[in-house]
């Protein structure tokens, strides 16, 4: 990736007339590049120009694009069994995946769905119905400030209310919100901030509460906001006193992103429910799962029909998705060093970059490195400085997608040292020009 880097100056002039893209205001955005091929950490535009995918294509691509081992597993499975109704049948790939994820998470039961939002919907519904099945009406749920849990209604309800959820505000169920004591290099008063957050949580928990939901270690869309494992352990201790369930939304952080297979594991917390998606299939196919403890599962057994969890999706446990997920787990098992040592890959570059005069709040957890750009306008998602840096990076063959003035790198595990170095060099020279 070093020398023959050319500017991407051949953007399409018009949007495709039939496509409605996600998270995009068409009247103020440029039509996107067309990607026709991808390999490892690289995306290729149709004229063959390489782009380093420094954010794993919305945090999904785990081992790298077009991974041959996963592709073969999908191909072999497609020849054997491509889809079957999971309410009446099971199949070997689903059984194998359920067994493996149960062993790895310590939660005995696995409920399949389609994506991150549905994995969260399932967890919320399971939590509410579990209490209902106990004959105890608990409708109160606690989430954290700046959380993001997806775009379906239940997931929106537990996420932070903002510009994105405003049109739906009246239809979202009420949620109490506790502070998220985010930390970064050199942060001084973190113990006090954590203690204040726990105090607020204790007050909120005076109301009987069905569940507390959180993104362990790193809040993603909220701005790559990181907390210490100590805080998560304190949350766990606090809620366990009132029998409230703990839901860990590991849709982004699951599957090695935090340097451990699961962020709950790295934090030494033991959730009742864990939501997984994105890296589950190595990022190759859409699939979500909600892991549940035996205690939750048992609460749904019985003769009364209303005890049943009446929820399911057409593609529940799709065999191709399960085959991809099993293949991805094989790769993780084969080479744990690929993620355990990732922090050190970032560290040398991030330390250097942290000296830059316009950056602040530098932080790093596993494969995720983030910092904020100091500007003279308000921090946050609507700050346009990230767009300027993104455009500069694209011209220099690096794809990033800052969240306002929050810049982050979340590359696939296969990124080479020289590719990662190039990402940091481009960011640095972009910052020099801001
Ligand atoms: C923590 C978290 N939960 C849930 C979701 C929703 O996942 P999906 O986009 O697959 O619906 C996301 C997506 O970014 C996420 O980061």
3D architecture notes:
35% of the residues lie in helices and 16% in strands. The strands form four sheets. A seven-stranded mixed β-sheet has the order 4-12-11-10-7-5-6, sandwiched between helices. Strands 1-2-3-15 form a four-stranded mixed β-sheet. The protein is α/β, with parallel strands linked by helices and 434 residues long. It contains 14 helices and 16 strands. It starts with 34 loop residues before the first strand and ends with a helix. The protein folds into two domains: 26-66 and 341-433, Aspartate Aminotransferase, domain 1; 68-334, Aspartate Aminotransferase, domain 2, CATH 3.40.640.10. It has helices spanning 56-59, 68-80, 92-105, 116-133, 153-158, 190-204, 229-240, 263-267, 294-298, 319-334, 337-340, 342-353, 385-395, 417-433; strands at residues 35-39, 42-45, 50-53, 109-113, 140-144, 176-178, 209-214, 218-219, 225-226, 245-249, 273-276, 288-292, 359-365, 368-373, 398-399, 406-409. Strand 5, helix 5 (153-158) and strand 6 (176-178) form a beta-alpha-beta unit. The structure holds pyridoxal-5'-phosphate.
């Amino acid at each position: 990736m070093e020398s023959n880097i050319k500017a991407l100056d051949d953007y399409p002039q018009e949007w495709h007339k039939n496509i409605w893209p996600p998270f995009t205001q068409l009247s103020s955005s440029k039509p996107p590049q067309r990607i026709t091929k991808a390999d490892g950490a690289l995306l290729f535009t149709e004229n063959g120009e390489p782009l380093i995918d420094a954010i794993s294509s919305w945090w999904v691509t785990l081992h790298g694009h077009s991974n041959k081992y996963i592709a073969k597993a999908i191909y072999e499975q497609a020849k054997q069994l491509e889809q079957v109704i999971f309410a009446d049948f099971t199949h070997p790939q689903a059984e194998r995946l359920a067994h493996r994820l149960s062993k790895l998470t310590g939660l005995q039961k696995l409920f399949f769905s389609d994506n991150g939002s549905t994995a969260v919907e399932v967890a919320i519904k399971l939590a509410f119905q579990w209490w209902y099945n106990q004959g105890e009406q608990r409708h109160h749920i606690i989430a954290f400030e700046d959380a993001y849990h997806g775009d379906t209604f239940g997931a929106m309800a537990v996420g932070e209310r903002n510009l994105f959820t405003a049109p739906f505000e009246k239809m979202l169920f009420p949620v109490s919100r506790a502070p998220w004591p985010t930390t970064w290099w050199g942060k001084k008063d973190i113990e006090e901030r954590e203690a204040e957050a726990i105090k607020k949580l204790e007050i909120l928990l005076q109301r009987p509460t069905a569940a507390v939901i959180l993104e362990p270690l790193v809040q993603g869309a909220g701005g790559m906001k990181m907390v210490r494992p100590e805080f998560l352990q304190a949350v766990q201790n606090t809620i366990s006193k009132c029998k409230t369930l703990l839901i860990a939304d590991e849709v982004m952080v699951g599957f090695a992103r935090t340097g451990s297979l699961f962020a709950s594991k790295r934090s030494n917390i033991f959730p009742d429910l864990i939501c997984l998606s994105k890296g589950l299939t190595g990022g190759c196919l859409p699939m979500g799962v909600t892991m549940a403890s035996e205690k939750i599962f048992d609460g749904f057994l019985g003769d009364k029909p209303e005890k049943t969890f009446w929820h399911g999706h057409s593609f529940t446990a799709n065999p191709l998705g399960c085959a991809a997920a099993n293949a991805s787990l094989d790769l993780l098992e084969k080479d744990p060093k690929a993620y355990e040592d990732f922090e050190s890959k970032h560290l040398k570059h991030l330390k250097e970059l942290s000296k830059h005069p316009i950056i602040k709040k530098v932080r790093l957890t596993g494969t995720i490195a983030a910092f904020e750009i100091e500007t003279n306008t308000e921090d946050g998602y609507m700050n346009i400085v990230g767009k300027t840096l993104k455009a500069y990076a694209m011209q220099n063959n690096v794809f990033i997608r800052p969240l306002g003035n929050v810049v982050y790198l979340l590359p696939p595990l296969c990124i080479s040292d020289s590719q990662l170095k190039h990402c940091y060099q481009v960011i640095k020279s972009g910052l020099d020009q801001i």
